[in-house]
Write a structure and sequence with these properties.
Elements: H1 5-13, E1 21-24, E2 43-46, E3 50-56, E4 74-82, H2 85-93, E5 99-103, E6 106-108, E7 113-114, H3 129-135, E8 139-142, E9 154-155, E10 170-172, E11 176-181, E12 184-190, H4 196-201, E13 207-208
Parallel strand pairs: 1-2, 1-5, 5-8, 6-9, 8-10, 12-13
Antiparallel strand pairs: 2-3, 3-4, 6-7, 10-11, 11-12
Length: 214
């Protein structure tokens, strides 16, 4: 039994510290904010020009002028501010974002990330992902451990076009939590119901497994 998408988002919410400035990618990352405790002070940044992004808008209350970078209707938290995309990317490139939680298609053992396109499929581009993976202080990737064919998405080397090289710090999947280290991929946590053997079987690189997880 693996974590659901909601449980992945809930686990990823534990990566956010009080006072952090955080950027959330599209997909599973958009759900992360739903699991933060009410007393944790966090400012969510959207690269289209919003700092202090609040929860998604309720049905029927949408403001067509207020969306996040994924084109979803959102609200503004108390103290929020609006600005141009140029200022937004200056914020990202200037190292002012503490954490970016992004989706992923493939991650390599050395922290390479591919998350913006599949060859032959028409896409608009990688958007702000390239800036985020190099500008944010820490990168956490959330994704399924294997693709729909059961093949590993955590690889020795990515086969898809890269968003960034050596940029990922932590991977949270439906089956495990892993850290990218100088010595290799370190297994940090196993999802309830999953086994070490199962995780190894759907992970291409060799894993560093601490004694308490063996």
């Amino acid at each position: 039994m693996a974590w659901t998408r909601e449980q992945i988002a809930e686990r990823a919410s534990l990566e956010i510290a009080d006072g952090n400035y955080v950027n959330l990618g599209i997909g599973i990352p958009t759900m992360v904010a739903n699991y933060l405790p009410a007393d944790k002070q966090v400012m969510f940044q959207s690269e289209n020009g919003l700092l202090g992004m609040g929860p998604p808008t309720r049905a029927g209350e949408e403001d067509i002028d207020l969306v996040n970078a994924g084109k979803q209707y959102v609200t503004m938290a108390a103290g929020a501010s609006l600005f141009s995309s140029a200022e937004s990317f200056a914020m990202i490139r200037g190292g002012h974002i503490d954490l970016a939680i992004l989706g992923g298609m493939e991650v390599a053992a050395n922290g390479d990330l591919a998350n913006f396109m599949i060859p032959g499929v028409l896409v608009k581009g990688m958007g702000g992902a390239m800036d985020l993976v190099y500008g944010a202080k820490r990168i956490v990737v959330v994704m399924d451990h294997a693709n729909k064919h059961g093949e590993p998405k955590i690889l020795n080397k990515c086969s898809l076009p890269l968003t960034g090289q050596g940029v990922v710090n932590r991977i949270i999947t439906d089956r495990a939590v892993l850290d990218v280290t100088a010595d290799g991929l370190l297994l940090v946590e196993i999802a309830p119901g999953c086994t070490l053997e199962e995780i190894k079987s759907c992970t291409e690189p060799e894993l560093i497994v601490p004694a308490h997880l063996q």
